[in-house]
């Protein structure tokens, strides 16, 4: 379960990087097929099988996205602050 969260975090971080696809990272990490399968059975009577995986993966994605956005915002603020100090 922890591995799924970390993979979700990697995909979430990737979503904030322009030009890099989260699907590509999911494929590299070996979780793409399971993710697509879980999403595809959401509309069937077997949806309860997919929910634990999707919830765990989604939690990791949200954590990764939040961490990445926070780091990116901190870097942008530092860059702007250093530019304003030099002017």
Structure description:
- With 87 residues, the protein is an all-alpha fold.
- It has one domain (2-86).
- It is built from four helices and no strands.
- The longest helix is centred in the C-terminal third of the chain and has 40 residues, at 47-86.
- It is elongated and about 50 Å long.
- It starts with a helix and ends with a helix.
- The mean pLDDT is 86.
Order of helices and strands: HHHH
Shape: elongated
**Roughly how many Å is the radius of gyration?**
17 Å
Mean pLDDT across the residues is: 86
For this structure, the quaternary state is: single chain
How many separate domains?
1
Beta-strand residue percentage = under 5%
**Number of DSSP helical runs:** 4
The count of strands amounts to: 0
The share of residues in helices is over 70%
Largest beta-sheet details: none
Which structural class do you get from the secondary structure elements?
A: mainly alpha
Q: Tell me the distance between the termini.
A: 50 Å
Which blocks of ≥5 consecutive residues have pLDDT under 50?
Answer: none
Describe the protein's topology.
Layout: H1 2-14, H2 22-28, H3 32-40, H4 47-86
Helix pairs in contact: 1-2, 1-4, 3-4
């Amino acid at each position: 379960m922890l591995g799924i969260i970390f993979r979700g975090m990697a995909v979430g971080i990737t979503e904030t990087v322009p030009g890099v696809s989260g699907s590509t990272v999911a494929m590299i990490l070996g979780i793409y097929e399971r993710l697509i399968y879980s999403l595809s059975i959401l509309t069937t009577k077997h949806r309860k099988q997919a929910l634990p995986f999707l919830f765990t993966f989604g939690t990791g994605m949200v954590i990764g996205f939040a961490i990445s956005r926070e780091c990116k915002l901190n870097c942008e603020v530092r860059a702007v602050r250093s530019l304003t100090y030099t002017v």
